[in-house]
Amino acid sequence: GPTYLPIVFVAAPIFLLVQSLSLDPLHFVPLFTNSIIIALVCTFIFLISRKLFDSEKIAFVLSILFGLTSFIWPYVTSMYSRPLAILFLMIFLYFILLHKQNNRLIVPFLAGISLGLAPLSHYFFFYLIPGSLTFGIISMHKDKKKLSMFLAGFFIMILVIGTANFLRFDDPTSFGAAYDLADMGIYLEYHNKFVRTLEGLHGFLFSPGLSLFIYFPIFALSPFGFYYLYKKDKLLTIFFLHIVILTYIFIGTNPGWYVR
């Protein structure tokens, strides 16, 4: 399967700590690694929400809702790197919002670095790059220096990704899947099966075995959330909608999500 570098660097100090305590790394490293990452995701959701709604109460509720009612906690029993990619996306969003109140050029630069680290952590986030990059450019287009720093940070990370993949797999687009094609290409091949694609999209919403509304019922409140957010920030609402739609299509068309 794909091999992602950031999760290795994040887990390394935890592995050393677990070893020093004579604990079993197989059990404790995944548990502590993704638990810490998920806690940090909740922290950045709090920071982002506080900036958006000027309310610590709303920010606290939203971060707690994410932490307690989402699908993300099952990842603590594994070394899957999706939570880390989500964390980098949240950091990107935080710095994008922060740049409006902070004139330091390091802020947009770190936004670009964070955006580049997301697909390095999990290749699905390459699907989000066009929309995220557009969101960042529109947010900073009035300040050329900030925009230049944002793009510099992002393309530095793209260069790092390509170089790392080439050094490991002789292909800048490969993340280490045991196939000749890059991982995204493999998934696109899977997704071309039209009938199963429709089954997956339907099942993701309505299947009694896999329905999003059964396993994540609070999702039913999302239209109200989007409406409230739209009144606060139209561009950010469009950005979040594009993430939701792309994620729904990607997961719904995954070969493992057909109607059961």
Q: Explain this structure to me?
A:
With 260 residues, the protein is an all-alpha fold. The protein has helices spanning 5-20, 25-53, 56-69, 82-98, 106-121, 129-140, 144-169, 183-191, 194-206, 212-215, 222-232, 234-252. Helix 1 (5-20) crosses helix 2 (25-53), helix 5 (106-121) runs antiparallel to helix 6 and helix 5 runs parallel beside helix 7. The protein is globular, with a radius of gyration of 19 Å. The two termini are 25 Å apart.
Which percent bin holds the helix content?
over 70%
What's the shape? globular
Arithmetic mean of pLDDT: 82
What is the rounded Rg?
A: 19 Å
Beta-strand percentage range: under 5%
Largest sheet features: none
Termini gap: 25 Å
Order of helices and strands: HHHHHHHHHHHH
Class derived from helix and strand content? mainly alpha
How many separate helices?
12
Low-confidence stretches: 178-191
The total of beta strands comes to 0
Q: How are the secondary structure elements laid out?
A:
Blueprint: H1 5-20, H2 25-53, H3 56-69, H4 82-98, H5 106-121, H6 129-140, H7 144-169, H8 183-191, H9 194-206, H10 212-215, H11 222-232, H12 234-252
Concise description?
The protein contains twelve helices and no strands. It is mainly alpha-helical and 260 residues long.
Characteristics:
260 residues, mainly alpha, 12 helices, globular
